[in-house]
Amino acid sequence: MSIHKEGYKILILGFLILVVLNIIVGILWSDETLLKWAFLFCSLIFYVFILFFFRLPSRALEPDPGLVYAPADGKVVVIEESVESEYFKDLRLQVSIFMSPFNMHSNRYPVSGRIKYVGYHPGHYKVAWHPKSSELNERSTIVIETREGKEILVRQIAGAVARRIVTYAKENQEVLQGDELGFIKFGSRVDIFLPLGTEIEIPILQQVKANKSIIAKI
């Protein structure tokens, strides 16, 4: 398991800040041994959590044009028909995955194909499970057209804690199922919009993993 490149700057800066804070605590409370050790312990726990958040496990898969894999780790919180208003502007089958701060936050392409559309929208930071988060929060929308001509929309949505969405997709780029689509920092949600009639393979509230869990057949 490695560390994601999006975490390098945060990890270096966080390490330096924690070192400085521990030095300051050591100087100001030089006689308070218990306080100094408690602060050091809390600093180590906090830094280990950041390391854990930016982990990047190996998730290789064999692409299958008949399957839609989960684009993110997390819990399935929505499976319903809903109107997608940004790109399709019609009724689609929506599957939403909520990513807690304890989930791996690298996002993957659920299918192979060509990128038809990429759109970024700054916005609010409502909790990721809020019904309006997909319309009001900071978000990035990616549409992938498969070789069979089906269009799959993936939307990265920032949550209450998340403050930056990273999207690697570029329009007209050919992408492979399972490759990295992007990254969302510190808690978020990923929506997938599928054609009506798509056969869903997972139930609501199911825990899924990117590149491992099959969420639908097309």
Features of the shown structure:
8-stranded antiparallel beta sheet; 2 domains; elongated; 3-stranded antiparallel beta sheet; alpha+beta
How would you portray this structure in words?
The protein is α+β, with helices and mostly antiparallel strands and 218 residues long. It has two domains: 2-56; 67-217, Glucose Permease (Domain IIA), CATH 2.70.70. 21% of the residues lie in helices and 37% in strands. It is built from three helices and 16 strands. The chain has helices at residues 8-28, 33-53, 133-136; strands at 2-3, 55-56, 67-69, 74-84, 90-99, 106-108, 113-121, 139-145, 151-158, 165-167, 174-175, 180-184, 188-194, 199-200, 207-208, 214-217. The strands form four sheets. The protein has an eight-stranded antiparallel beta sheet with strand order 11-7-8-9-13-5-4-15. It has a three-stranded antiparallel beta sheet with strand order 3-16-14, with no helix packed on it. Strand 8 and strand 9 (151-158) form a beta hairpin. Helix 1 packs antiparallel against helix 2. The mean pLDDT is 89.
